Amino acid sequence: LKLLLILxxxxxxxxxxxxxxxxxxxxxxxxxxxxxxxALQQVEGTKKKYxxxxxxxxxxxxxxxPGYMKLDGMKGCPxxxxxxxxxDTLGLVKAETxxxxxxxxxxxxxxESTGTFTVFAPSxxxxxxxxxxxxxxLEDNVNIELFNALHYHMVNHRLMTKDMKNGMTVTSMxxxxxxxxxxxxxxxxxxxxxxxxxxxxxxxxxxxxxxDRVIRSVTGTIKDYLESEEELSxxxxxxxxxxxxxxxxxxxxxxxFAPTNEAFDKLTPGFMESIFENEPVIxxxxxxxxxNSVQCAEAIMAGSVYETEEGSxxxxxxxxxxxxxxxxxxxxxxxxxxxxxVIHLIDQVLIPDSAKEVRELVGKSQSTFGDLVSExxxxxxxxxxxxxxxxxxxxxxxxxxxxxxxxYLRIILQNHMLKLKISLSMLFNGQLLETLSGQxxxxxxxxxxxxxxxxxxxxxxxxxxxGALHVxxxxxxxxxxxxxxxxxxxxxxxxxxxxxxxxxxEDLLKQNGSYTIFAPTDEAFEALGAxxxxxxxxxxxALRNILLYHFSEGIIINGGLExxxxxxxxxxxxxxLQLKSENNSIRVNSVExxxxxxxxxxxxxxxVKNVLYPADLPVGRQDLLLVLQKLIKYIExxxxxGFTYAEIPLTFIITTVIEGKPSIKQVTxxxxxxxxxxVAEVDQSTKxxxxxxxxxxxxxxxxxxxxxxxxxxxxxxxx
Length: 719
What we know:
Keywords: Cell adhesion, Disulfide bond, Extracellular matrix, Gamma-carboxyglutamic acid, Repeat, Secreted, Signal. The protein is α+β, with helices and mostly antiparallel strands. Helices cover 25% and strands 29% of the residues. The longest helix is centred in the N-terminal third of the chain and has 12 residues, at 18-29. The chain folds into five domains: 17-80, no CATH class; 86-211, FAS1 domain; 222-341, FAS1 domain, CATH 2.30.180.10; 356-472, FAS1 domain (Roll), CATH 2.30.180.10; 483-631, Roll (FAS1 domain), CATH 2.30.180.
């Protein structure tokens, strides 16, 4: 608790920066080692060690925090380091090579004198890692080259880490050349992408920050670098065709993952040529390599996800001292600093989903579907110049039963292939989608799910250059029977159907509509004798109230229910049902539903083995109460003497037919007009009009696709 209180004070400090917070937290982590000790982590396979907030699998080192020293025989670092001039401070922070070079280049006199300087001093290891030829050139001309190089590491005023803001540019003491500073939320501070590994060492005439590499002056933009490097000519050409080159020459904060020519040579022959004429696709490919922020290699943490200019994301991580992109070690050269960002050279071309054909988007979890589409010869309908959508089921749904009949399997597969590109954002409740085989599939939109028939989507919808892919939890089977036909063919709902007929409600199971029906099996009525059933049938008002409590408008399937949450469904009787999904099963009014999601063309049927009844609806007759008590065990039914059920007119439920007036049915279909470009058209077919007396007209929204453009239309339907 004390630790949390301390951290809260630290993180609320107005003057502290992300770097300062990391150092302070590091001090807290090492408090058992004595006063003023900081905990550091060392990167495996390197000499690099950094202050950090956690050490999951890394070696922990303990050193004196910046500005403190050890004393013989005493625990921790109890002594304050002496404040010397900048030259002497270089020795104090163990930047001896930078100190020696200051001597050799005649810089020593300047940094020992009065003034205020900030020195970004490369560590000894940083000098050792410098290209030997470049280092030799500096040492061969100490009065000019080395002197100028050291001056580029200096600013003529004091600059503490808390003063260093992300994206800041400061002027160096070499020809007023710019130094580019980034200060990241994880506490990393970089100077031209060199990381500050020991900061804020105060001197009498300034401050010293130790950095992990030697920095060089920056003169050009990312555009300048692309145009000057022969090994990037292929990518440079793609950038030009995509119309992105000017952007890369403007001021900004960019990170570019630039594929080399060898990376393009690895692509499938003809791929680039095939997309050069498609400007949106080539632009998507190029901008997928571009981030709208500067991400130096030293600031990237494993598993970091960044949004690209293309709009989708890439994952950048670490593999020892190297970078990975989307989990693959592909970075050849990192941290090429430009005036408007940083470039990392990679040996693979990154291809976003939007630059792939839809068939290429099928993932491992849907590979069975992809393989079967090829094996059944259905790929001819999925050419690169055709727009389509794949509804790809997970592998587990392809059971031996499904795979046993090739003709049935072909039909199943075609039910998962739509003729148009239908992205997730284009779907709406009640929409009809046409499959390759001409079947119509219904779309249902719920609070936490999007479903097509009884199959719901899982996360991971993708859009390719010629269509879309949605991953489905189960197989899609279009309904081909009404609710009445389903129940009648089953044979286990004879009593329920008989009661519906007696109540004058049988047509409710046959007519057009969208209903959720909780159908009691014959087993639910097994406690009743013939006399009990006759008594129930004799009171039509009571019977209608009971039966209509099993109907709700709208189609609610198991996958559309939010798990472990009670969903209230208004019934045609008026009282609500309580529906809850848990552990992949559903209950209605606490009654288990043994079989769910029987899809009908006019709704969905859920099977129950109990008759449902509203808990707050009393009974006014003793004989009827006795019958209902035999039927309904899960609640205690109240008796209120003289209570009568409300009259429910059939005219509010059962549709009546008016001959001769056509209605317009909205269906998205594909046609091929002159010029053979695929478009979509709303099919207008004459139907018999139905209406519900006493209801207001409703309006449904449909999407019309003509020549690739979407138009929202409002169609009034009279019932």
